[in-house]
Amino acid sequence: MLAQDIHWTQFNNNPIFQNPAGAGNFNEDLRLTANYRTQWRSVSIPFQTTAIAADTKYKQFGLAINYFHDQVGDGKFQTNEMQLSLCRPLQINKSHQLRGAIQFGFNQRQLNSNAFYFDAQFNGYIFDPNAPTNETFQTASMSKPMLGLGLIHQYQINSKIDIQTGLGLFNLTRPNQSFFVDNTQRDIRLNLFSLLRYSYTNELSFEPSFQLQFQGPYRELTIGGTSTYLFSKKDKIFLSGGLWWRTQDAFCLQFGMARGPLYCGVSYDFNYSSLVPASRGRGAFELSLRYVFSKFRPAPIQYRLCPDFI
After folding, report:
1. Which one of 35, 183, 198, 298 has the lowest number of neighbouring Cβ atoms within 10 Å?
2. 31 and 290 in contact (C-beta within 8 Å)?
3. Is residue 306 domain-resident?
4. Which residues contact 227 (CB under 8 A, 6 or more apart)?
5. Distance between CA atoms of 278 and 148, rounded to whole angstroms?
6. d(Cα 254, Cα 284) in Å, to the nearest integer?
7. 8 A C-beta contact, residue 248 and residue 233
8. How many domains does one find in the chain?
């Protein structure tokens, strides 16, 4: 895994985490999303991440709130973040739209230091869990403010093709991540993505995409795409499948089904990095859910004007 922040295989199904300018960028009135990821179960205690988000449109703005919880390792190292996003779309012309957003919230981290084992607890003959660790933690929990920015450009080429390209900046406040006395600032994360939607026919569409992330010395590039097929027009059932490549790390398979306002997607990462001797090729399982709400809008009543005769 080549990033310090958490990452997702189904990043296009987690739009607010990917870029705050995605707030309100959909046709319906309210969107709820939920994502769950577990990985490295074959290596150690599995990493588990859960994210939920809700976004809507209000007048000329897109509004969103998102939360995620991440827990890793023997010490149950936890990261919790909650953020609010405010997006302002700007329609340049019929084909181009810019969406700018600001995201602010807080980051909270905690760990259970009593669950760790240290060299000082080995007395030369046996390991004594009751021996002092000789480690001094400044705190076991911390909360820091966070700030992010996002920009998305949408280009409607024609009735069948449109392109989204976005740039996001996160961790602009550089929160301290150290549980010791030193100050270890969290690196700013830069997220660049692009998504092309192509309606090949009324039943079949394709969505090639890529996401590139930079954070400190780390890089992560994921490329691939999905195809969607209209299985039942009457019941509004869509089936989708995709293949992704996260360079130097994993190949990922993705399957999804949508029925009306509900979408469910699953994916699995097959690891091929240098961790293979421990992972045995097993990577991560991920689940994504989405539900959209639409207000009832009665069909407009058209009146015919009858001429008056005198």
Report:
1. 298
2. yes
3. no
4. 204, 205, 206, 207, 240, 241, 242
5. 36
6. 12
7. no
8. 1
Alpha-carbon gap, residue 252 to 245, rounded angstroms: 6
Domain annotation covers residue 231: yes
On whether residue 80 sits in a domain, the answer given is: yes
What pLDDT does residue 294 have? Answer: 92
* Beta-sheet pairing, 30-39 with 47-58: antiparallel
Cβ-Cβ contacts under 8 Å for 235 (sequence gap 6 or more): 259, 260
Distant-in-sequence contacts of 208-211, Cβ < 8 A, 24+ apart: 209/12, 211/11, 211/18
Residue 17 makes CB contacts below 8 A (sequence gap 6+) with 8, 11, 35, 51, 53, 66, 68
**For the chain, which residues score pLDDT lower than 50?**
1-3
Q: What are the structure tokens assigned to 274, written together? A: 């240098």
Structure tokens at 24: 């309100």
**CATH code, domain carrying 113:** 2.40.160.60
What is the pTM assigned to this prediction? Answer: 0.85
Question: Using CA atoms, how far apart are residues 173 and 188, in angstroms rounded to an integer?
Answer: 8
Whole domain around residue 288: which residue ranges? 19-293
> Considering only CA atoms, which of 92, 88, 90 is closest in space to residue 63?
88
Q: What does residue 263 show for φ and ψ, rounded to 5 degrees?
A: -130, 140
What pLDDT is attached to residue 1? 36
Supply the pLDDT for residue 2.
Answer: 39
> Looking at residue 78, what is its pLDDT?
87
> Distance between CA atoms of 134 and 119, rounded to whole angstroms?
9
Which amino acid, residue 289?
A: L
User: Would residue 310 count as lying in a domain?
Assistant: no
